[in-house]
Amino acid sequence: MLLPQEFSSERLIYSLPKLTDAEAMFNGWLKFPEVTKFMSFPTNNTVQDTLNYLTYVTEASKQGKDYCYIIKEKSSQKIIGSTGARLVDTVEVVTGYILAKDFWGKGYATETTLAIVQEIKKVSKLKITAAVHPENTASKKVLVKAGFILDNNQEHTAVYPNISAEQLETLMFKI
Q1: 137-145 and 108-123 are packed helices; what angle lies between their axes, rounded to 10 degrees?
Q2: Of residues 17, 46, 53, 51, the one with CA closest to residue 31
Q3: Average pLDDT in the 43-64 region?
Q4: Quick check: 153 pLDDT over 90?
Q5: I want to staple 9 with a disulfide (CB 3.0 to 4.6 A). Which of 2, 91, 110, 115 is the partner?
Q6: Distance between CA 47 and CA 154 in Å, rounded?
Q7: Are 81 and 99 in contact (CB under 8 A)?
């Protein structure tokens, strides 16, 4: 799956991150437990944690396996979050997003989800999914607004390292 280096929506610009974006990402949202609580990765403790992830995803995107995009607000040019798409297997790609807390409640999560889904659909016929912790009410609403439906066909679990090291029940949405 080959996604573009950059794309945009009405109010936002999405671009592959540079290693120099690590500090803005860390200080903007990745170091805050309240923001990363429901994520599938641990809260970053240092800028080096963020650099390690960016190094990985830079290589993975070149192979078409895992993409991370920084989200920049057009009006302010401020980096406000990230989104992405990860190839799970030959039939599925999973997406997600994270926004700095100052940018919650502005419709950016829905706009971002619609934009990344549109880009995936341009290059792939794969099933698009998103995993959500059952207590993450805001993200469940975002996915429904973006056209996702709950996949009740089987039970799903995932690790949410900021909550528990154990596999936990998760809700899987699909489009």
Answers
A1: 50
A2: 46
A3: 96
A4: no
A5: 115
A6: 38
A7: yes
Q: What is the DSSP string of the chain?
A: ----SEEE-SSEEEE---GGGHHHHIIIIIT-HHHHTTSSSPPP-SHHHHHHHHHHHHHHHHTTSEEEEEEEETTT--EEEEEEEEE-SSSEEEEEEEE-GGGTTSSHHHHHHHHHHHHHHHH---EEEEEE-TT-HHHHHHHHHTT-EE--SS-EEEE-TTT-SSEEEEEEEE-
Report pLDDT digits (tens) over 132-144.
999 999 999 999 9
Answer yes or no: CATH 3.40.630.30 is held by domain 6-174. Answer: yes
Rounded CA separation 39/3 (Å) = 23
In the chain, the amino acid numbered 31 is K
Say what the pLDDT of residue 54 is.
Answer: 96
The band of 56, judged by pLDDT with boundaries at 50, 70 and 90, is very high
pLDDT-above-90 percentage for the chain: 97
**Above pLDDT 70, what percent of the chain?**
100
- Going from N- to C-terminal start, the domains of the chain cover 6-174
